[in-house]
Amino acid sequence: MVRDLRERLPGRIITGSEISWDRTVGYPDSRTFVTAIRGHKITAIERRGKFALLALEVGGTLAIHRGMTGSLLLRPNGHPDDRFVRARFYLDDGSELRLDDSRKFGRIYLITEESNGYNPPWLKLGIEPLADAFTTTVLMESFHARRVAIKTALLNQRLVAGIGNIYADESLFGARIHPLQPAGSVAARKVGMLRDAIVHVLNRAILARGTTFSTYKDVDGQAGHNQERLQVFGRQGQPCPRCSTTIKKIVVGGRGTHFCPNCQKLRKVVDKTPIGTAKQRIAADSDMKE
DNA sequence: CGGACAACCTGGTTGC
DNA sequence: TGCAACCAGGTTGTCC
Fold first, then answer.
1. Number of H helices, E strands in chain A
2. CB closer than 7 A to strand C: which residues?
3. Which DSSP state fits A184?
4. Scanning A166, A171, A186, A271, which has the fewest C-beta atoms within 10 Å of its C-beta?
5. Which residue's alpha carbon is at the shortest distance from the C1' of C12?
6. pLDDT above 80: residue A136
7. Distance CA A69 to C1' B6 in A
8. Nucleotide nearest to A290 (CA to C1')
9. Distance CA A123, CA A230 (A)
10. What is the pLDDT of residue A270?
């Protein structure tokens, strides 16, 4: 999405905006937002995690997070309206940038020199998985001594930015790691495989123009096609593409989690309690102190 | 620290 | 066909 916006948005001036669901504006309040955004020129588009960051010529930032169901649509002059538009920006060439978001979890933010004292949510994000700095060592450190399920750790935006439920499951499958494996207990070699799997899964999805599992649309309103390439997500009950074992669906950290019980086995915690059932190992692990 | 769960929201699907 | 229940690509906060 950001790559598409980057080709078309720089140079455009926001001539006005309309917010049809007030809480779509995360900061400042929606009235202040509408007044403050008018007349600003967009100079560049960046991304941090799931936030699209539109740099303004005067030095501020317009940030957009699509939430679960949001689509950021760039519509030409006269294009029919979209069904769940919560925010729209009128641009100087007659086109319109719309946040179309049925569930209203999408958020937009405007940061200017007036915003001191406010901490934008993207500042606390962890490392970018597509940056050179995303190494096995860095990922090892972020998992260090953590007993949370590795799936939960992958979804923690403060550790690694931008991995959502689909790509977490796909990455763990790629690295053959059980989603419930305590993050800190994953062997270095496996963390290395996970790092590679994350990068691979994300790049592959980007090349496929996104995963339209349900509502994702690109800036032109077109569906992506990465959903056709998913290995485990949404494929519970179907054979694993690698070993044909039936893919299972469980709940981890409150999120639907898909994996192959044969390819992704829960492993013992490295140093101790070599004997016992999976249940006992987990119990022993949670009794351990730092 | 970490697990469980509720909130925020609405639309689409499933089950009876 | 109708309707209730359930599920959903995310994030944050509370309680224990």
1. 7, 11
2. A 49-50, 65, 67-69, 103, 105, 121, 155, 157, 164-166, 210-216, 224, 254-256
3. G
4. A271
5. A121
6. yes
7. 20
8. B1
9. 31
10. 58
Per residue in A71-130, pLDDT (tens digit) is: 999 999 999 999 999 999 999 999 999 999 999 999 999 999 999 999 999 999 999 999
Q: How far is CA A246 from CA A18, A242, A263, in A?
A: 48, 11, 11
Q: Which residues contact A176 (CB under 8 A, 6 or more apart)?
A: A190, A193, A263, A264
User: d(Cα A180, Cα A54) in Å, to the nearest integer?
Assistant: 37
Residue matched to tokens 């406010």: A118
Name the residues contacting strand B (CB < 7 Å). Answer: A 23, 84, 102-105, 145-149, 152, 182, 184, 253-254
Residue carrying structure tokens 């598409």:
A4
Q: Which residue is nearest to nucleotide C7 (CA to C1')?
A: A256
Task: Say if residues A128 and A198 touch (Cβ distance below 8 Å).
Answer: no
List the single protein residue with the shortest CA to C1' distance from B6: A254
* A238/A255 Cα distance (integer angstroms): 19
Give the separation between CA A15 and CA A12, rounded to whole angstroms: 9
Strand (E) or helix (H) holding A169: helix A165-174
Condensed to tens digits (0 to 9), the pLDDT of residues A192-210 reads: 999 999 999 999 999 999 9
> What is the 3-class SS of A190-216, one letter each residue?
HHHHHHHHHHHHHHHHHHCCCCCCCCC
pTM score of the predicted model: 0.92
Strands, sheet with A25-27, edge to edge from the N-terminal-most edge strand: A25-27, A107-111, A61-65, A51-56, A42-48
